[in-house]
Amino acid sequence: MFWMTERFPPWFVTGVGLLLGVWLWSPDVAGQDTAEQKAALKNRASRPSRGRTLDEYFLAIPDSYLPSVPRARRRTLLRPEHVTVRDERNGYLQIAGDGARPTVTVAKFRRSDGTYLIAVTADYEMGSECWLLDEQPGGFVDVTRNLIPDYRRCEDFEAADCHVYELPRYGTTIVVKDGAGRERYRLGWRGNRFERLP
């Protein structure tokens, strides 16, 4: 050991010794992961990445949900002249519509496990639609009817049973309105589901 101090400074030898000790005593030296590491790897593989931006979510929404806003045109709609609100911090994106396409709103709701539920609304001239999409390894899964109590589509603003879902830019409460814009009730996000608020 004395010969090492002649060639290398003492701080270097100490640092290498510490690193070697940590490496030898870590549980994964021989490929033997701890149970916690295995569980974390399994969860990471089964759930998609948490790092997507709102733009990436908007581009990934299947055409079946936004047929009048095909994926091929969506990148163009992300230009500043089309985006009404882009608020990454609060998880809210709104793209202005015109006579040919709806106003599209995308909002992220953080789950208790740190992943996100994606809410999408498309407001047309005559009606409005809302979807809650869960990102799975194979793509998005529509979980709207599972998570929104008494969910109804609004194909015509003049219909008596029209429900328009207004996604929040701030907070986690969806306001449900009728076709004339009067509030019916509110839905509060509870980490994994929505509850109708009194």
What this model shows, in words?
With 198 residues, the protein is α+β, with helices and mostly antiparallel strands. It has one domain. The protein has six helices and ten strands. It has a six-stranded antiparallel β-sheet. A hairpin with a 4-residue loop joins β9 and β10. The radius of gyration is 25 Å and the shape is globular. The chain starts with a helix and ends with a strand.
Keywords, separated by commas or semicolons:
single chain, alpha+beta, 6-stranded antiparallel beta sheet, globular
Tell me the layout of helices and strands.
Layout: H1 2-7, H2 10-25, H3 35-46, H4 54-60, H5 71-77, E1 83-87, E2 92-95, E3 103-110, E4 116-123, E5 128-136, E6 139-142, H6 144-147, E7 164-166, E8 173-177, E9 183-189, E10 194-197
> Roughly how many Å apart are the termini?
75 Å
Structural class: alpha+beta
Averaged pLDDT? 82
Q: How many strand units?
A: 10
Quaternary status of these chains? single chain
Order of helices and strands: HHHHHEEEEEEHEEEE
Residues in β-strands, percent: 25-35%
Q: Spans with pLDDT under 50 lasting ≥5 residues? A: 19-34, 36-46
Strand order of the largest sheet: 1-2-3-4-5-6
Main sheet summary:
6 strands, antiparallel
Report Rg: 25 Å
Rough shape? globular
Counting DSSP H or I runs of 4 or more residues, the number of helices is 6
Share of helix, binned: 25-40%
Number of domains: 1
